[in-house]
Amino acid sequence: MRLKGRCTCGAIRYELTAKPLIVHACHCRDCQRLTGGAFVVNVWIEAKHVRTKGAGPQSYGLKGGSGKRHDVFFCGTCGTYVWSRYHVVPGDCLFVRAGTLDVPSAVTPDVHIFTRSKVPWLDLPEGARTFSSIYKLDRVWPAESLARLRRNAA
Ligand SMILES: [Zn+2]
Ligand SMILES: [Zn+2]
Q: pTM (2 decimals)?
């Protein structure tokens, strides 16, 4: 089953044509501020697997925690943030906001990152893989996702 989603007003509709490479819960300050929430759930996936219908999103560029550019993409009508592109990441990938999926519970975070800025009232599930900032992909990702990322970056 393909994951589908949309912005709040429905001007942007999208479909993911492959399964996520990995799903991040990110507790960094940028994600908290951008979403207005305690953390964001991002589906990391090749851009070619994000098929959009309707209006294309607008973007705003900021400096990511890595020092490299981070573009956030949002609906020009309703302002919903639909995804990000981090220029530090190899290949052409997007980080799709799982809260914009029609069924957000269709994905579960594989890892929690930047837990150093996690809000203290939030307890993560027992056994969750947590990292105080980022992590080494080849120590965490399944081989299949690593191979896909390598193909995408080639
Ligand atoms: Zn919209
Ligand atoms: Zn973040």
A: 0.94
